[in-house]
Amino acid sequence: MGLPFVAFRNGEMMSRGKNRKVSLAFGLSLLLSAVFFLFDCFNPTDIAVWLFYLIPLLLTAYVAPRRNTYLLMLICTLLITLGHFANTPLGSTNVAILNRLIGITVLWLVIVILLERTRAEEFLRESKQQYQDLVELSPETIYILQEGKFVFINTAGMELFGASSNKDIVGKPLLDFLHPENRRPAEDWIRIERERGEILPSTEERFLRLDQTPVEMEISAVPIEYHGKPALQVFARDVTGRKHLEDQLRQSQKIEAVGRLAGGIAHDFNNLMTVIIGYVGLTKKRSGNPDHVSKGLDEIEKASTRATRLTQQLIAFSRKQILQPQILDVNQIVFNMEKMLRRLIGENIELVTIPTSNLGKVKADPGQIEQVIVNLALNARDAMPQGGRITIETENVDVDDSIAFKNPGISTTACVKLLFRDNGIGMDEGIKAHIFEPYFTTKEVGKGVGLGLATVYGIIRQSGGDIQVESEPGQGSTFTILLPRVTETAHSTDPPELVLDAAPGEETIMVVEDEGPVLNLIRETLEDAGYNVLTASNGEEALALFSQNKDPIHLLLTDVVMPNLGGQSLAARVASRHPEIQTLFMTGYFDTNVDAQEYPLGRRPLIFKPFTPQELLLKIRQLLDE
Predict the structure, then answer these.
(1) 514-562 pLDDT, tens per residue?
(2) Half-sphere exposure for 474 (CA within 13 Å, toward CB)
């Protein structure tokens, strides 16, 4: 209660002091006016005495309120008029009257102009004070940059940067407060100040506080004049908390997508493993009947093939699949697939292709592009259960900044556009936000697993392009694919010679694999083909066998990812001791870089799981024969 009471008392005392000052000035002005009136009445001269009335009028105008000034002005006007009648004899000329009228007019003009100017100055001071209060009391950070340096910052800005006073910031370069990952040359800011362009759109930058802790800010700026020089007024807001919440939301969405993915994988592989385990049991039971054994093995092989295909789809979604890019004409691919697509989508759906002439070439895996077209056609077909139309268009496009903003995966300006349009049921915003996620589907149970569009997305992004979708409920959907256009020409290659059976071997092979069943399968496969086989379950065990073995070893066949000592480290150590030994890597991961070194005929010392025994034997024979 004490502080408000003291403030009230201080305000009251200041008000009383001001009123006393006004009363004193107004009383003095009245006294001076009376003195000038008496002087005008009893001592008539040719001097324009009434001009002395400006003295009390100016005094009142600067000290008292406007109403007091106008009141005194009326009194002075009356006194000037009475002074004329008091000292002017009858029959005098009109010159004296005109002189008095001119004097009154001049007084009124001077005082009115003075009062209006005073009012304008007061208004300007109040506006400036209001602006200053608005800036200083604003909860958002506001600062002014001039030639790349801080020249002003408000209280919120000092708190945000952790400064105790504006001297800690004012006069310092902006670059001192920008995070190293977000630094830009100070010349850019100076250029913006000098160009005096439009308001800069809001953007997010990472700054450093005085204690070097990072803080995320959303900033926008407008060019202004500050002390007669170009400057930049910046509005900043701390969005560190919001960014943290956004990260949490994205993480929860990722967890949801991973959970959906894990559930879908479990469902599909459970079905496949049911088939494999079931036919293994039946085959053991029917081992005396070769026909039944052969049928069971065929079914096991089919289920294994489906499992491999499912894995490849997941790899394509993760954009880690090993592609075999070629120079392609998208028009030719669409033309070659047109008949097959018509059979695929059914007779109740019309297929319209609109190829552009002189379409540019792209570099991509032809099989993967065909899969993209098939998946989009099936997706469009399922969106039109009552029939409709699918339109496929191709076009050369030049990607400008606006398109690149919508398609962040594009790294070049020249592209080939492949457009898929249907007039089906369409999608709302909620569905569009998830259509490229694996195992997300709106179809009935058993009608689809939700990998089609996820696979399309993965293939296009891995091919250096981007895909966008536009759709509204009841208005159909349009998928736009942009692939970088290339100037290379297709190289004709002779078809490789087909080898049906690998030649038997007699060399010694060291096999390193941490998975026991895989290791046993490879050992039996190589021994059946005539090779001498040494096995190890990890890299350290393999090095020990190399040291103990006295006979020459011709090939190292090793897994890439193993505990303790990985395949690449193992191969490097073996090569330093025995440079004559060939190395073949095997892996189930598709993000390894062990295939960077190319071998003759384009072969690489790498084989991907899963592989058949015949594929393994062919690869080994090729390496040993080089």
Answers:
(1) 888 888 888 888 988 889 999 999 989 999 888 888 888 999 999 988 8
(2) 0
> Which residue in 411, 329, 402 sits closest to 362, CA to CA?
329
Rounded CA-CA distance 317/462 in Å is: 9
The residue ranges of every structural domain in the chain are: 16-136, 138-238, 248-317, 326-486, 508-625
Which residues, including other chains, have CB under 8 Å from residue 415's CB and lie 6 or more apart? 396, 397, 398, 399, 465, 482, 483, 484, 485
Please return the burial class of 597, using the count of CB atoms within 10 Å of its CB with bins 0-12, 13-18 and 19+.
exposed
Rounded to whole angstroms, the Cα distance separating 549 from 534 reads 10
Residue 145: how many other CB atoms lie within 10 Å = 23
Phi-psi region of 511 (alpha: psi -120 to 50; beta: other; left: phi over 0): beta
| Token pair listed for 453 | 């569009």
Is-cis flag, bond preceding 610, omega within 30? yes
State how far the Cα of 443 lies from the Cα of 597, in Å rounded to an integer: 45
State pLDDT tens for residues 34-65: 777 777 777 655 455 667 777 787 777 777 77
Between CA 228 and CA 17 the distance in angstroms is 39
Domain spanning 508-625: CATH superfamily: Response regulator (3.40.50.2300)
Mean pLDDT, the chain, as a whole number? 76
Structural fold of domain 326-486:
Heat Shock Protein 90 (3.30.565)
CB 390 within 8 A of CB 345: yes
What is residue 372's three-state secondary structure?
Answer: helix
The enclosing H or E element of 55 equals: helix 54-63
The Cα 350–Cα 388 span in angstroms is: 6
114, 61 contact by CB (below 8 A): yes
Residues facing residue 235 across a β-bridge = 142, 220
Output the six-digit token pair for 497. Answer: 């010679």
| One-letter amino acid for residue 534 of the chain | L
Query: Any residues with CB less than 8 A from the CB of 164 and at least 6 apart, and which?
Result: 158
- CATH number belonging to domain 138-238: 3.30.450.20
